[in-house]
Amino acid sequence: MTQLTVSIEDVSMLDQIRQAISLLKGVTSVTLKRRTKTGMDRAIEDIERGRVYEAISVEDLIKQCKA
Fold this sequence. Notes:
The chain contains 3 helices and no strands. By secondary structure, it is mainly alpha-helical.
């Protein structure tokens, strides 16, 4: 048996894509394997969404976090 891996960014069409693939001749199963976010993925997402802190020192950062 041979496997084909398909990466999908927009998960809103996931069900339709799975149905389409399962209709292809020779396809015996369609399995979904979700990728979990790593710490780096979450950190990059925080930066992209502006969830960052600017501090002069460690003490300043701690003050901001407590506020």
